[in-house]
Amino acid sequence: MSKHAFLLLSPPETPGKIANPLEYARQLDEADHEVAVYFDGAATYWFDGIDDHPAPAVEAYEQAKERGLIAGVCDHCATFKGVADAVEAAGFEVEGTEHAPDVAALVEDGYELHTV
Fold first, then answer.
1. How far apart are CA 64 and CA 25, in angstroms?
2. pLDDT tens digits for 48-72?
3. Residue 35's beta-bridge partner residues?
4. What is the gyration radius of the CA atoms in the chain, in angstroms?
5. For the chain, how far is it from start to end, CA to CA, in angstroms?
6. Per residue in 62-84, is it b (16+ CB within 10 Å) or e — as a string?
7. C-alpha to C-alpha distance for 106 and 30, rounded to whole angstroms
């Protein structure tokens, strides 16, 4: 099976750009593909008031989280956008201010990158 990494960069004000790739990630996972989802850039704002986002986007996020598809959140972005506490409250660690993910390493590991 193939490997796919979704790099979410869109702000929560465009919930379809969060919900749709999370849905695609779930579908790929159900078909036994390897999937990793990363929240980066403006997408890190997602964690600030998760429950206030539209229900379809929240449901897609919760399903992806339950399936273990969310591989990480950019420490640099979460810290400098002031949402590190919200990210940690959602169960993800923010360690320092390193930018993540390492896209070169993902490609070397055979992941196809999908940037939204």
1. 7
2. 999 899 999 999 999 999 999 999 9
3. 4
4. 13
5. 22
6. eebeeeebbbbbbbbbbbebebb
7. 21
The pLDDT of residue 98: 86
The C-alpha angle with vertex 71 and arms to 67 and 76, in degrees rounded to 5, equals: 145
Place of tokens 């979410």: 8
DSSP 90: T
Q: What residues are paired with 4 via a beta bridge?
A: 35, 112
Find the angle CA(110)-CA(84)-CA(71) to the nearest 5 degrees.
20
Q: Which domains does the chain have, with CATH numbers?
A: 3-115 (3.40.1260.10)
Two tokens, residue 110: 């055979």
The alpha carbon of 34 is separated from its chain's Cα centroid by a whole number of angstroms, namely 15
